[in-house]
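Hey,

Quick one before I head out. I ran the complex with iron/sulfur cluster overnight. Inputs first:
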Amino acid sequence: MLSGNYNRFYNELITFIPSARLITDPLRTLAYGTDASFYRLIPQIVIKADSEAEVSRILQASDRHNIPLTFRAAGTSLSGQAITDSVLVICGGNWNNYEILDKGERIRLQPGIIGGQANRYLAPFGKKIGPDPASINAAMIGGIAANNASGMCCGVAQNSYQTIHGMRILFHDGTVLDTADENSRAQFKKSHSALVDNIQELGAAVRADSELAARIREKFRIKNTTGYSLNALVDFEDPIDIILHLMIGSEGSLGFAAEITYNTVVEHPHKASSLIIFPDIASACKAAAIVKQQPVDAAEIMDRASLRSVQDKEGMPDYLKSFSNTTTALLVETRAHTRDELQQNIDTVKQSLAEVPMEKPMAFTDKADEYTKLWNIRKGLFPAVGAVREIGTTVIIEDVAFPIARLADATLELQDLMADYRYHEAIIFGHAREGNLHFVFTQDFSTQKEVERYRGFMHAVCQMVVEKYDGSLKAEHGTGRNMAPYVEMEWGTAAYGIMQQIKNIFDPKNLLNPGVIINANPDVHVENLKPMPQTNPIVDRCTECGFCESFCPSRDLTLTPRQRIAVQREISRLRATEANPERLVEFETDYAYLGEQTCAADGMCAVGCPIDINTGAHTKEIRGINVQSAVVQRAANLIADNFERITGLVRLGLNVVHMVHQLLGADLFEKVAAGTRRISKSLLPCWNPYMPRGAGRITPSNPSSDGLPRVVYFPSCVSRTMGPAKGDPDNESLPEVTARLLKKAGYELVFPENMHRLCCGTPFESKGFLEQADIKSKELETALMQASDGGRIPVLCDASPCLYRMRIVMNPQLKLFEPSEFIYDFLMDRLKFEQRDTTVALHHTCSTMKMALEHKLLAVAQACAQNVVVPDLVGCCGFAGDRGFSHPELNQSALNELRPAVAEKCAAGYSTSRTCEIGLSQHSGLYYKSIVYLVDECTQSI
Ligand SMILES: Cc1cc2nc3c(=O)[nH]c(=O)nc-3n(C[C@H](O)[C@H](O)[C@H](O)COP(=O)(O)OP(=O)(O)OC[C@H]3O[C@@H](n4cnc5c(N)ncnc54)[C@H](O)[C@@H]3O)c2cc1C
Ligand code: SF4
Ligand code: SF4
């Protein structure tokens, strides 16, 4: 229940925001409130804001009712700056418009675009955005700019502060300033003269104070995100330019960035990397200082503990295990426009380091697979600590910077401090060129003693960094709540006073993300710590980083994987403490739909997760518990034992539905179907005009002659039952077309014995019938082993989701192929392709993506069609086998961006999963079918 001002504020919001985008229930406020930090605040209201005009009105309402607001992009912040116990305004996924300007010299971006996506837009121009946080494939532009995030390459030269060109800023009263528009600047100077004058005067005063100005310049020579970007006051004189640059790194506490224009930087086409091994930290730091002056784009230091944390992981070079206890590595990358320039760079770097002692001769590689392996060592460090931590503890990544000349001493002292405070698992790595070190350790916050250990350690670190080395307490991750008590310690009273004035000028009522950066509470960094209770081994290692969220098809409908885990943790906490039974019941009840039923269980979350957590597997386990009753189990066994009969009935049912559809026409039938579904309380499947008719039953025949190459063809149960949709110009079923294509390519087909009884188990597994799933896949495995002569003959399955499961659970001797993979690997040379002058849409199923087969599917499609559109904002379609029939809203939400991307341009759509194709057709208006149809159409035998 909202009280007082919050109630009045809500009542105003509801006049211009639909209630579906105003969240106040306990489960979702907890879920949405979660970010990657180790703090927990639960918002009272979560607003999913839709447009600049809407945010402007929200700001005005907040001003009127004195309600604090916190903005949220991807919620990957680590310092507690993206959370609130007031109102959270989410401006994420649907803020995704962009415009490339001046042939890629600049890019205008809405704040919800993921950094990596912006770089994909810029790639054809040989450009990228400057800021490059390690979280770039999850973090969004709004958060990247508001945190002044940076990473391995951008240093202090290419961060948001240096590369920002312009911004549309919304101030606390809802006014908009477009800094790139002269009219808007002039207008703002008039309408907000007091704010502008105050900033101008503050800038003038700071520049006049030569000691303070010099101090500010000095501090920003190395990375620094502690406090506000005071360099704006010394680098610029125009007040609007100062305002623009103060917004960078302000963590949503000065205003809202509705649009950001970056000057882009060059993305070099040629790269080479070397993992240089030094005997100790001192030599590695000496080398880092040297390479800073060389043509080197990144130099990542990793201490021995870091190397040890990943040395046993798959794909790591064996030599990592053989180093001494003081070994330190520097992973160096150089980039160039041409091959010759790259070689020159390599020679220069090698010469520059000739005098520094090394444990192993230095060698560069420009081969993508080799340098990717080297960078995987670095990228695996944070997840490695997260993955081995004790359940219930938090993994903390700290982020300090030192003047590079003193990096060696500082690193050694940091190691000593960590030992003093018994953080024996801690590792140190970082961007050595910039003097920026991350140290990662695990922390239990469940007892006061442990909280005190953390407090003591952080205080000692702060004293060391500031007093001894004059470094930065936050180099990249932002101040948030975590470093707020130490901003004054780092900057001194005068500079801190200026920061307080800045906050006051922009936000006189302290309503914009209060408590971050400027906070009088000396304990704020050890308050509101997030509990991490044990919940289920599949998800217990989750660090709540949020990297999985953009992969999830239910992210805009109900919950993301991170949110599902956060809610499950809360349910476990409530069960264990028995403190609040009503809340527990409410959470358990609401989770059934928000968490379990609307999870596609496709496991795409594991693709984005640094520690491979598959929340879908957890969902299947929950479903397994829900289907334990004897009656339900008996029904599942009945289906598994009578599979041929059941698929026959489904075929028949589809044909009957198809006939009625033909008789009534689409409009009337849709109404009848919707009515019957309503009466059945959604027990009957949802019908749509692209529903397939029953597939013609195929009669397997055995190979007749010897001499031709053979392939075992297993048509999935879905292809055996579901034919094309009514109206689709293709009349044949997928098995018929596949068989023809294979024969055209000169193959003889072998079908597994009793094919119509067989199933890979996926339909059972996705509903939690894990035992029946295993029985079915075992039966199929036996039949395939026999048909393939013990694995000698390749096996083709025509549905990628089925093939994916088969690959995981079946005998590795079987050579299993997905359709696009089989065509790419075996048929390209055996068929004559005729590329048609047409544009087609292509959909990579989640299984295609999990098996990393996108490039093969794309290459096959491009061999057939001149233009192939793969919509960049469409991931897993959420149809999830048959969930698209029972929860069509999941499919609809996941495919929101499909129609605008393909409907006008494309003649047809292609994919590799029949059920996904039903939803894809419905939400695009195109007929989607298997890629096999396209290849059959565009090829002749040789
Ligand atoms: C595993 C891991 C690795 C990381 N590595 C790095 C790294 O290498 N370098 C680095 O710098 N950071 C790193 N981070 C931290 C974080 O990812 C970045 O700071 C990132 O830029 C935050 O972006 P976001 O979209 O998640 O923003 P959020 O966390 O949602 O928000 C960040 C801040 O911006 C504010 N904000 C959001 N949108 C707006 C807007 N439109 N207008 C005004 N204010 C807004 C929020 O209120 C908040 O204060 C890492 C995080 C994790 C979990
Ligand atoms: S599941 Fe993985 S990616 Fe998602 S929040 Fe947890 S650790 Fe991060
Ligand atoms: S399995 Fe799919 S729907 Fe479920 S949480 Fe993971 S990505 Fe989301």
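Residues 35-36, 70-78, 81-82, 91, 111, 133-135, 139-140, 142-144, 146-147, 149-151, 251-252, 256-257, 382, 476-478, 513, 545 surround flavin-adenine dinucleotide (ligand 1) (CB under 6 Å).

Talk tomorrow,
K.
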